[in-house]
Design a protein that fits this description.
Length: 149
């Protein structure tokens, strides 16, 4: 049996933008999720930020566009997917590994959001993944400006 499952938590680094896939017109959105690792080196507190690209499809994408904003703390579960493309500018093949979201849980809202949630203060967005082929996705214009590496 093979398992491809990942769970990450962190803060959203961009405002989700609604998009549609080119072939089937399925709703999609991309999120950049920042996770800061704290560790000690030579008795000094150090931090390293890891960025994850999250892809949402269908109803989960529509719900994310409505409820998720830059600064929202999310717990994302999904699967890893890698893709390769040819960069016209450099003439080289590029690759990326992304997380295809199956479930989003909003664990902390940005301070400027006024929402009603359950008693624990969280909202869970959980929809069945819709089948989408990777070449069906419209490429995002989003570029993370504060990449730590």
């Amino acid at each position: 049996m093979h398992t491809n499952q990942v769970i990450v938590s962190g803060y959203v680094g961009n405002q989700p933008e609604p998009r549609l896939t080119t072939r089937h017109g399925i709703a999609t959105t991309r999120l950049a999720l920042a996770q800061t690792e704290v560790f000690w080196k030579d008795e000094e507190r150090m931090e390293k930020t890891h960025w994850f690209q999250i892809i949402c499809y269908g109803r989960i994408a529509e719900t994310a566009v409505q409820h998720v904003a830059k600064g929202t703390r999310l717990v994302v579960s999904g699967r890893l997917a890698s893709r390769v493309w040819h960069d016209q500018d450099s003439g080289r093949d590029q690759s990326i590994t992304e997380i295809i979201a199956h479930n989003l849980e909003i664990s902390r809202w940005p301070k400027d959001r006024d929402v009603s949630v359950d008693a624990e203060g969280s909202l869970e967005i959980n929809h069945a993944e819709e089948a989408v082929e990777s070449e069906d996705v419209v490429e995002s214009e989003h570029v993370v400006e504060e990449v730590p590496f």
